[in-house]
Amino acid sequence: LWRSSQAAVRAMSSSGGPSPPYTTLAVSHPAEFVTHVEFHRPEKRNAMNRTFWREMVELFNELAVNPDCRAVVFSGAGEVFTAGIDLMDMANDVLQPGGKDTARKCWQLRKKIVAYQETFSVLERCPKPVVVAVHGACIGGGVDMITACDVRLCTQDAWFQVKEVDIGLAADVGTLQRLPRVIGSRSLVNELALTARKMYADEAKSSGLVSRVFPDKEVMMAGAIAMAEEMAARSPVAVQGTKINLLYSRDHSVAESLDYMATWNMSMLQTDDLMKSAQAAMEKKSPKMVVFSKL
Amino acid sequence: LWRSSQAAVRAMSSSGGPSPPYTTLAVSHPAEFVTHVEFHRPEKRNAMNRTFWREMVELFNELAVNPDCRAVVFSGAGEVFTAGIDLMDMANDVLQPGGKDTARKCWQLRKKIVAYQETFSVLERCPKPVVVAVHGACIGGGVDMITACDVRLCTQDAWFQVKEVDIGLAADVGTLQRLPRVIGSRSLVNELALTARKMYADEAKSSGLVSRVFPDKEVMMAGAIAMAEEMAARSPVAVQGTKINLLYSRDHSVAESLDYMATWNMSMLQTDDLMKSAQAAMEKKSPKMVVFSKL
Amino acid sequence: LWRSSQAAVRAMSSSGGPSPPYTTLAVSHPAEFVTHVEFHRPEKRNAMNRTFWREMVELFNELAVNPDCRAVVFSGAGEVFTAGIDLMDMANDVLQPGGKDTARKCWQLRKKIVAYQETFSVLERCPKPVVVAVHGACIGGGVDMITACDVRLCTQDAWFQVKEVDIGLAADVGTLQRLPRVIGSRSLVNELALTARKMYADEAKSSGLVSRVFPDKEVMMAGAIAMAEEMAARSPVAVQGTKINLLYSRDHSVAESLDYMATWNMSMLQTDDLMKSAQAAMEKKSPKMVVFSKL
Amino acid sequence: LWRSSQAAVRAMSSSGGPSPPYTTLAVSHPAEFVTHVEFHRPEKRNAMNRTFWREMVELFNELAVNPDCRAVVFSGAGEVFTAGIDLMDMANDVLQPGGKDTARKCWQLRKKIVAYQETFSVLERCPKPVVVAVHGACIGGGVDMITACDVRLCTQDAWFQVKEVDIGLAADVGTLQRLPRVIGSRSLVNELALTARKMYADEAKSSGLVSRVFPDKEVMMAGAIAMAEEMAARSPVAVQGTKINLLYSRDHSVAESLDYMATWNMSMLQTDDLMKSAQAAMEKKSPKMVVFSKL
Amino acid sequence: LWRSSQAAVRAMSSSGGPSPPYTTLAVSHPAEFVTHVEFHRPEKRNAMNRTFWREMVELFNELAVNPDCRAVVFSGAGEVFTAGIDLMDMANDVLQPGGKDTARKCWQLRKKIVAYQETFSVLERCPKPVVVAVHGACIGGGVDMITACDVRLCTQDAWFQVKEVDIGLAADVGTLQRLPRVIGSRSLVNELALTARKMYADEAKSSGLVSRVFPDKEVMMAGAIAMAEEMAARSPVAVQGTKINLLYSRDHSVAESLDYMATWNMSMLQTDDLMKSAQAAMEKKSPKMVVFSKL
Amino acid sequence: LWRSSQAAVRAMSSSGGPSPPYTTLAVSHPAEFVTHVEFHRPEKRNAMNRTFWREMVELFNELAVNPDCRAVVFSGAGEVFTAGIDLMDMANDVLQPGGKDTARKCWQLRKKIVAYQETFSVLERCPKPVVVAVHGACIGGGVDMITACDVRLCTQDAWFQVKEVDIGLAADVGTLQRLPRVIGSRSLVNELALTARKMYADEAKSSGLVSRVFPDKEVMMAGAIAMAEEMAARSPVAVQGTKINLLYSRDHSVAESLDYMATWNMSMLQTDDLMKSAQAAMEKKSPKMVVFSKL
User: C197 and B276 in contact by Cβ < 8 A?
Assistant: First the structure.
């Protein structure tokens, strides 16, 4: 397993840049049914510009329905994962809304905030699991983004910063909504969000923000892809149904979530994948040896 | 305290099998007001068959109203806690719903899923605290089950596996709904549910799935029973009201939960137990020396 | 930074007692825009009497609208943080509601419970962050209280006890509602609430109840005040909007919380603080060098 | 159509009393797939005694899974629909809970209230539509009951009374929860519940409590059975799915309800009933001429 | 009954103005346990000024705990019920918030809106039923207000106008939140709120906004007081519990509301009022002949 | 007013068909800021085909952001409003999902149902009010559609039919979710949905489904446009904020909705429209004489 993953990683290293038509994202396929998306503005420390926000929506809406994609790995090119919002590029958008009437400026700003929120919500609405691999800095919008991914991994040198209060605003594209749900210490969440202090890999691990820490980026990428392969090897009906129901239960009571789950599985249990998988399990075969129809 | 518990454990060891009328569950009373329920299909690695699902509902509905039961310890007989669903026994039920019409097959399946969910929901609806003690493997349905218990303990050799995606389905009897609420790292929850990898005792402890790890099963059982004795020794009005309100607050906002709590306690504070307990506390007596009326 | 904080701590040490008109609370200003509130009934081990409950509401309602307060540190004077409810003082209130009719006694009790809940809910409704610093014992009502604060710190010798079941009642002023939301292990929450066992600083840290442990009280107080200074130095529009939205998202779904956030920030992004902060950030200035208008 | 219904009504008239094993309920089958349930304690003006509460649960749980029942008509035998709770029979239950401890009396009372609520909630959980036909008086518990039915009809001489405040309690088995959801004027709901005044057929119709008023009981019963036949003649997959989703949407937001609906119909649309029904519709055939498999 | 009410009305007519310390509200006691609150700024067509907003909160907070008040009638003095907000008086408050920073102006405005909302929310939080009697015009803030009352009555010459869009704002003190819940036609609600057209008494009755229309103000006042007497004559435990639970069920699902109701009544059913009322009912006595303890 | 509207109606009558690029929708502008959308497949009795579903989304997403549109009138061309779903056109889509695996067919169907639901949800998400004018038949999908509009009008000869159970399915694009929220009688909703009986104009009016009935289509169109003009003449900040908050309050509790409203209006009250409108109101000018900036 790991050998092929490492080969894949080496293959990826030769990638020269963004994949057309994208200009901020490089897309590759390091393993069967696995899509690797790389944020690729290394010269700008992967700062999030307007192009990035738009391309994320386009790409993930496409991946959501692409049957050849069953799991996604997301990472950043260059020195750091991301420096966060590209203030220069976005200044006009956010800092100088048009017109003189306060209400009308609000109206325009609200539309933009909702659109930026959407950029990361597509990560959730995409039913394929998204594993995010963080190295170096993950600042501001970067934290908003990774909390919308399903599994978070990082390198030993990674650090995280909820930067927004430092530039005079309450984080509004996801961190305040999702961070408290992905880690177990509210005291820590509040401390991070109210003081903008940095958190390093060890605390990220012990607090549960990431579930694994790797010594360096190369090892992490191999691990991330191997994990995505595990997900991609299992029945897509099972895996994607699992993601959808995990997210449902986050936002509903246990009773409501059990009801939804039963209504979901009353049909999904009739899939052929169940028999194929059960048989493979009894025969002690790896799920990777089973061929599932496209979904 | 521990001595008597260990005696109790030894006493239990001599139990020869299920307690009639049950055929999969052995019921004993290792200490006053403490009920020990043992899953007893050791020859089948405590695989969950249809009889088990039915007996669980019957037993816990009975314990819910039995005034001599104030706390429950649940454990598994034999080598492992549970191997999960007994696929052989349940195949007809789930894999081959009757009839040809898709809608009607769904209708039947939904009823069965709801019934299976009920098996573990009775653990929550029973107002007496349930301490679950896990040794060896806890697979698939086992994880669904323990997340519906109140306190989770395990031995050093225990391991946990959200197995469902391996057999082609999204877990539908509680894991996806309750696991994210009982541990603090959503990244870990997702990783476990989407890859079916095993988690061992150390990670179970550091992630908060279990609150204590014991060196072996005998010590764990003594610890579990001692803990249940502590719960059983306190006012049942206080203990059971605590469980009911903890579960209520899980599924409601803080404001709603405070309102419910006030409405609950406006009468429960009038219990004689309050005066008895307060007096014992002032006199530095153990709660075990107070006699509370049956509830 | 730390030097000035330590000076502030020394200054505080000379405080002789409660600040009129309060008789249980000492209020001081160890740093600009930082308010230090000290629970000051050391001779009673800071037991919560009826005066305390009333004064907390008065004080925090005042701090909520006081523009000179941008962050609060709360701590206890004397040997311990708090011994919890002052049973002697409150006995008449709670143990002997007037009248003979059960319904009417309930009616009176409910009003009192709601009023006591309010004492800690004011901590949440105050939009300024509250950092609580715990040393020694934090018992019963103390746990209810600290779970309503934003950041929790403690000394190495601190311990926490959900004491209520020991005196015959289900905790009704916040612990059962907030504790499961501030730490990541539900098994631990249940164990603490159902057995009333003590939890020490290490477990408080590993479970996420506190986000930092300090060697002793003096160091902790310096750390707490330094942290509050960090919060107070940033834009109050950003910091207080962050607190308000963190609490909102605790009690609503992610989708609802994002919607609220966008509606909030459509106007708050128009603050001058944003430009001031962004400029300072680009110039690598500390937020402390920026002057924000009062809020 | 009406002719056969009237014949059925006549046939029913000859029924001599309750259907064993029931002693308060007479069950008959006036038309194919239609079950008629008659409350049969005419000598007690159909007062609701403990036997009735229990039998309702037994019967409707049975009807819920009986494939030969696709629609239910509920009515009362004798002079009036129901005089409400049988105070004499229930006095011991409710007025004199056992024991001396307030908390323990509450505990017992709560169990009983929940059980009584269940009596009417079974009407909702039964996925087959329930048409209730009211003549004469419908008092107290009668209003609780009819608000849990799906369609309400009455005779010109019917009257309704939310009686509970007259006997010193807030209605606790459904009226306060369901009445505001079944009629359109909250001012009227409040007036009825807070003054216990009678409401007659005309106001019941104009307020929307009933959807049709009939001149006398015989005509009403024919109309009720004809309506039930219409429901029973259509695809049970469609009709029961409609009831389930109407109830779901009552208690959830529109967005949540649409999501649930889509998840429900993704399988139910695959039923053969759809093709059969569509074909009949195109051929202008009555649904009654289509044969649907049992559900 | 009516005779005494009419005498009471005549008595009230002699009232010369507001009751000190109030300057916009006249308070009287036309019948036992009934409080009549009259909006008394006839020379300003009962326009809502800042004094009124404040006095409403003070008065209804007092009535909420006054045991001599068991039901309230609210009406307006002079020609009309109310002309709505007093724009002149409130212009400074709302139209010219202080300061230059948009965020800070928002912050101040939000506090004021919340305070104004509170003015009408006290009507709901007061557990005693509030019957509102409308004559002549009820404009803008008047509609916000009456939708927070429990029962709405009007004269034949009354008319209602959701005026806010006419002056350039979305109604923000209750109409948009409560009007759709008190009448049964959403098309009508939207039409009224989006066009600001007037609605007259007949449509108010047929749509369910009011539950009764009276020929003139004198008759209406007699009717309103008679209705309040009916409420005041019944067990306050029953009546106030009914109001509290009706409001609870408005904002929660049926299942949640039934649960709350059971938890409420487990103690309230133990009131002596139940036995007293039941006995009176059996003896065919009027509730007015029963003496209930104060609540 | 009416004269110009009638002229506009006459002008529209000359419209020859759909407005490119649309092939099922004719778009015109009968009055300033008013858009008239006509469903234009008269030769197919305005049956909803796949093109219609797509064009609705495109058009209303455009209208949502078009500043020249402040209110919308929707009607149907030809003999009837709509015959509902075009079964022939959609048969492939819905009746024969591809593939053999049940789970995969469900997956595809769910996507389609969600897309169809979206067609009508755009009517709600468009912040401009939508007045729908119904003549003749409004069947099946037509009812789903009109319940997503804001104001419903009809002619005397209109009739409505929740047709879905007749063709073997539970209505899944909005009727079961929205109809109970727009009319006041749940008994009627259930009767209509479970029996598919027709409802005529009078019952539509008395039940609150429509807020006005007109003698014929020409008069209705004039009335609809006049009503839309009233809406379009008022401040768009006020009108659109009203629609957004009315929809918000439908799906949230009163307390949550008031909070959202305050957060919304803290900025929207700063609009210049408020001063302009207030001044016009004081000068007794019509809102139509005020010029508001585009939104």
Answer: no
Q: Which residues pair with B160 in a beta bridge?
A: B138, B199
Q: Which residues of D touch B103 (CB under 8 A)?
A: 237, 267-268, 270-273, 295
R_g (Cα) of chain C, nearest Å: 20
Using a 10 angstrom Cβ sphere, with 0-12 exposed, 13-18 middle and 19 or more buried, the burial of residue F67 is exposed
What size, in residues, is chain B? 295
D243-282 confidence digits (pLDDT tens): 999 999 999 999 999 999 999 999 999 999 999 998 998 8
Q: What is the mean pLDDT of chain F?
A: 93
- Please state, for a pLDDT cut of 70, what percent of chain F lies above it: 94
Q: Are E236 and D236 in contact (CB under 8 A)?
A: no
pLDDT at A165: 96
CA of E251 vs chain F CAs: smallest distance (Å): 5
Q: What positions of F carry a catalytic annotation?
A: 85, 141, 144, 164, 172
Alpha helices in D74-216 (DSSP H): 87-95, 102-125, 141-146, 175-182, 186-195, 201-207
Q: With contact defined as beta carbons under 8 Å apart, do D263 and A263 qualify?
A: yes
What is the arithmetic mean of pLDDT over E244-261? 97
Q: Which residue type is seen at F258? A: L
Under an 8 A CB cutoff, do B271 and D295 touch?
A: no
Q: What average pLDDT score do residues D31-36 get?
A: 97
Predicted local distance difference test score (pLDDT) of residue D190: 98
The pLDDT of residue B14 is above 50: no
Using a 10 angstrom Cβ sphere, with 0-12 exposed, 13-18 middle and 19 or more buried, the burial of residue B289 is exposed
Angle between the N-to-C axes of helices C272-282 and C236-250, in degrees from 0 to 180, rounded to the nearest 10:
110
> Which chain C residue is nearest to residue A107, measuring alpha carbons?
C266
Per the annotation, the verdict on D144 as an active-site residue is yes
The helix-helix angle for E175-182 and F236-250 (nearest 10°) equals: 50
In tens, the pLDDT along F135-157 reads 999 999 999 999 999 999 999 99
Contacts of residue A278 in chain B, CB cutoff 8 Å? 87, 95, 167-168
Q: Is F249's CB within 8 Å of E102's CB?
A: no
Read off the pLDDT of each residue in C25-44 and give the average, rounded to a whole number.
Answer: 97
Q: Are A102 and F267 within 8 A, CB to CB? A: yes
The tokens describing B72, both together, are 């429950």
Is the distance from CB of D186 to CB of E235 less than 8 angstroms?
no
Biggest alpha carbon–alpha carbon distance for chain E: 71
Q: Which residues are B37's β-sheet partners? A: B27, B74
Residues of F in contact with A101 (CB under 8 A): 271-273, 293
The predicted-structure confidence for E275-294, as pLDDT tens digits, reads as follows: 999 899 889 999 899 999 99
The residues of A annotated with a catalytic role in the active site are: 85, 141, 144, 164, 172
Residue E17 has pLDDT above 70, yes or no: yes
Task: Please count the residue pairs, one from chain B and one from chain C, whose beta carbons lie less than 8 angstroms apart.
Answer: 167
Identify whether the C-beta of residue F23 lies closer than 8 Å to the C-beta of residue F49. no
- The pTM of the full predicted model, rounded to 2 decimals, is 0.95
Cα B58–Cα B59–Cα B63 angle in degrees, nearest 5: 120
Q: What is the pLDDT of residues E134-166, one digit of tens each?
A: 999 999 999 999 999 999 999 999 999 999 999
CA distance F183 to E184: 5
Give the neighbours of chain D: at least 3 Cβ pairs within 8 Å.
Answer: A, B, E, F
Q: Is D141 a catalytic residue?
A: yes
pLDDT at E87: 84
Tokens standing for residue B33: 């007001």
User: Are F260 and C263 a contacting pair at CB < 8 A?
Assistant: yes
Q: Please tell me the distance from the alpha carbon of residue B117 to that of residue B173, in angstroms, as a whole number.
A: 5
Q: Which of 184-203 (A) contact B at CB < 8 A?
A: 184-185
Distance CA B251, CA C251 (A): 10
Cα–Cα distance, A27 to A40 (Å, whole number): 10
d(CA C152, CA A207): 15
